[in-house]
Specification:
Elements: H1 9-20, H2 24-37, E1 42-48, E2 54-59, H3 69-72, H4 99-105, E3 108-114, E4 121-127, E5 130-137, E6 142-148, H5 155-158, H6 164-181, E7 186-191, E8 194-198, H7 205-213, H8 215-219, E9 221-228, E10 231-238, E11 250-254, E12 257-259, H9 262-271, E13 284-289, E14 295-296, E15 307-308, H10 311-329, H11 348-353, E16 385-391, E17 394-400, E18 441-447, E19 451-456, E20 459-464, H12 465-479, E21 485-494, H13 498-504, H14 508-513, E22 517-521, E23 524-531, H15 539-552, H16 561-573, H17 583-595, E24 609-613, H18 614-620
Parallel strand pairs: 1-7, 11-13
Antiparallel strand pairs: 1-2, 2-6, 3-4, 3-6, 4-5, 7-8, 9-10, 10-13, 11-12, 14-15, 16-17, 18-19, 19-20, 20-24, 21-23, 22-23
Length: 624
Amino acid sequence: MARIQVLDRHTAELIAAGEVVERPSSVVKELMENAIDAGATSLTVEIENGGVRMIRVTDNGCGIPRDEVTTAFLRHATSKVRCEDDLNHIGTLGFRGEALASISAVSRVEMLTRTADELSGTRCVIEGGEEAELSETGCPVGTTIFVRDLFYNVPARMKFLKKDVSEANAVAAVVDCLALSHPEISVRFIRDGKETLSTPGDGNAHACIYAVFGREFANGLIAVDYALGDVHVYGYISKPVNARSNRTMQHFFVNGRYVKTRTAAAALERAFQGAIMIGKFPSCVLHIDMMAEQVDANVHPAKIEVRFVNERPIFDAVYHGVKSALTAGDTPKQASFTAVKPQEILPVAEQLTLPTAPKTSATTPAPSCESGFKKRPLTDAVPPKKTMSLRDGTAVLHGTPNIEAEPPKKPLPQEAEPVKTPVPAPITASITVETVEEEPIRFLGEVYHTYLLVQKGESIFFIDKHAAHERILYNKLRETVQQDAQLLLTPVTVSLSHKEYEAVLPHLALMREAGFEVEEFDGALLVRAVPMMLTGEDVPALMEEIAGGFLAGKQEIQVDKLSWIYHSVACRAAVKAGDRQSPAEAEALARRVLNDDAVRYCPHGRPVCFELTRKELEKQFGRI
């Protein structure tokens, strides 16, 4: 048995550093938190090669006195905790005194710092935990720290780092969270020489969210401001229509510290219950202020989790705050009418005789049997459309003829025979039946515009039309090596969270195979083309769904990423429950399901149809 011995100081520091410094983002988090604790109002973070080559954090805080600079790099040296009682009411982000010691143990660190009382600054260089230089220098009030060659002396840790783009995205996510936690601090982030974030630092939380997540996300928010007892909840939540397919955009801050809390997340989602679809999740940037004695931040090495003395007040405050904000701020959309200039209004008689034609778009392909079953309203007994115009300040309601009605005939010369205008036949998509029917199929009708009823032999089949059509489209996608794509007239820019963005980037080639043309664009995705079967779809929502699937399956060793893309495409292209189809379309879909053994379950595993035999039906009526 090996003898027990005390590790040397250097080895012990390398082991301890592993708990604090996991990757470049850990370094940035610790240095930014120190800058915030120092009272900084302006903070700049710059990285190169994902932070592995260089990290620079500059602040205008109080600085470090010259005689305390070397002490700051010793383990358990801190200015934030004096005695045991201070741990019961921690009001700072840092308090353990481990950050600088751990960072300097696995990198080359250079610090420039000056206080307001000093005429000149101090330069300190430490390599691998050993002091290399301490000298006087010129610098502004505040602190600048350079961290170079991270893990240069720990090859085992270096080989587990990811690609530069992944590490840089992780750093960006940390910077975003700390910028959101303190909107009163101006935060700049420079990535490989390019500024990617700049917050105003004026204390306006909405302006900070706008700078971090962009205009589209910021414009879909509802303000929250609610107090219950000693707990104050404030910030912003997303509108129900902007719900996402994952929880990556849920941000909670307890006393200015970014944390992950199941209590607050459960309260948020409970408040949204009934307002969003099952499987969708709200987004938020919520601050929770409470007494420091009621929360313990010293339960996780990275201080990302906290423990509450009593979770019930937190849950109630978040729930009631979000619920009241939804009640007041989630107003329904209002219809608007565009006023028409008087000179542009035609007489009513002329408006009634204007021919109408369906509009076409360069990006919308013509319906075909191959692309599947298209959504189309029933043409039987459709009332004429009505339009509103303004004449001399008075609203006038005009009727327009049905698109399939025969236009009125114009008077013809007596010697000419009247020419009948042919009525265009309605376009209906059909589904090709590839197998031979064994028994006749009789289409009975549709229930709730969702389930098809079909009789075949001595059985009645109930068919979920969305699940069935989704499986048909999915099978077709799987059988095709390269999907046809349609170019968008205007490329769509999709902003994702850093985790979603990182999850999508390795799979751009797979997405191209699935019919998407996607490329990186300034930290976002630029979508230039989508699969041919998608028409009029919400491209940002689709990309968020695909990214969420990639993110959810990120930890799996073997997963069919292309299959997940086809799941999302088929689900969105398929006819939806509640959509109306003509009897011919519904019957074609039913025949395809009953004659194709490959259409039994949807891609998500739900059954497509179930059978009710005549014997079972007659048993219910007591006939047998």
